[in-house]
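Propose amino acids for all 353 sites.
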């Protein structure tokens, strides 16, 4: 199955990985773990609409992927399905969470989609009209195809108002229509607990953009809360609560850690104190200096090297030499090894033997 969809913001603005798509895309509780999502699959330049170049394949890459989701709610009558992603896109992907509108009189914006699974295309409506549980769209530029299903329809303020169900438009029938489920109106009773967890009852919400590639906020791990950078939190398999959040906002089952190590602040260092030594390789020496950790081969490296690279999507199997990457404290020419059992195969970045 090929479908489109998009991350969608919520009123807590906590970077919850909620993904809106179409119900007919056949994602259910017994197969949601098989979802594969492709990010930033788009051409490197904007091409002239209607040109043969624009209609071509382009140079988009499918190299950025995540896997798995959990179905949250669905409604067949307006063809809506909301899932929560299992694997979070790395910060380097630069994902954003689209805003939404519950208006019953939407303005004309754009449809963003992947027709036939192709790289991202943008289609511009000429009109959007209410058809009960659907918005009927006629196109001024561009149409949709199979694979576009589930893609968001945006209003003029760049807010999602629905997701694509289907229609009669095609390259051979460009003056025909498409229908988008008006789920933000007709399925709000299901969506509200996820999109409005703060119970604000607001009608609109803007897009959440994370401009800082590694923002700082609250992180829940092992039932505790610390203030940490997003990459550090995810590297420790924690739950990231969002840019600028505090432990006062934390849903963690126990209270915040506090300044465990006595350095005057609650930070990732306290997280390291709770988790303890990251691993000791069998038969290796265990006398690394404070603030340093031992890799699989018994070589000591500063903790920040591990924080930077664990869970970063790359298999640190000896291909990285920290000194060459700017770690002047590290031994020149000595590689780092993190793909042994003690490091859980580099936190999933390497295939376990």
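Proposal:
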């Amino acid at each position: 199955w090929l479908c489109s969809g998009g991350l969608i913001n919520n009123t807590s603005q906590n970077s919850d990985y909620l993904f809106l798509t179409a119900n007919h895309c056949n994602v259910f509780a017994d197969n949601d773990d098989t979802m594969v999502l492709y990010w930033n699959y788009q051409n490197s330049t904007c091409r002239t609409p209607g040109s043969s170049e624009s209609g071509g394949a382009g140079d988009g890459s499918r190299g950025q992927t995540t896997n798995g989701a959990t179905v949250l709610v669905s409604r067949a009558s307006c063809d809506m399905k909301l899932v929560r992603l299992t694997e979070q896109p790395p910060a380097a992907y630069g994902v954003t969470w689209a805003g939404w509108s519950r208006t019953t009189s939407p303005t004309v914006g754009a449809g963003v989609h992947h027709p036939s699974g192709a790289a991202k295309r943008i289609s511009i409506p000429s009109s959007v009209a209410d058809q009960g549980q659907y918005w009927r769209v006629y196109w001024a530029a561009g149409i949709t195809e199979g694979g576009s299903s589930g893609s968001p329809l945006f209003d003029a303020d760049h807010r999602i108002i629905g997701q694509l169900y289907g229609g009669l438009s095609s390259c051979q029938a460009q003056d025909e229509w498409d229908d988008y489920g008006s789920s933000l109106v007709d399925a709000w009773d299901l969506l509200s607990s996820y999109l409005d967890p703060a119970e604000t009852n607001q009608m609109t919400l803007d897009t959440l953009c994370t401009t800082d590639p590694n923002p700082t906020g609250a992180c829940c791990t092992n039932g505790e809360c610390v203030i940490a950078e997003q990459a550090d939190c995810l590297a420790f398999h924690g739950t990231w609560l969002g840019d600028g959040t505090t432990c006062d906002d934390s849903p963690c089952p126990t209270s915040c850690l506090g300044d465990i190590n006595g350095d005057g602040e609650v930070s990732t260092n306290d997280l390291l104190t709770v988790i303890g030594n990251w691993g000791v390789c069998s038969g290796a020496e265990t006398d690394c200096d404070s603030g340093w950790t031992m890799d699989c081969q018994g070589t000591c490296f500063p903790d920040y090297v591990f924080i930077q690279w664990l869970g970063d999507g790359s298999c640190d199997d000896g291909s990285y030499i920290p000194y060459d990457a700017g770690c002047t404290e590290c031994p020149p020419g000595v590689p780092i090894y993190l793909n042994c059992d003690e490091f859980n195969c580099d936190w999933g970045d390497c295939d376990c033997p």
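The first strand starts at residue 6 and ends at 7. The first helix runs from residue 52 to 55.
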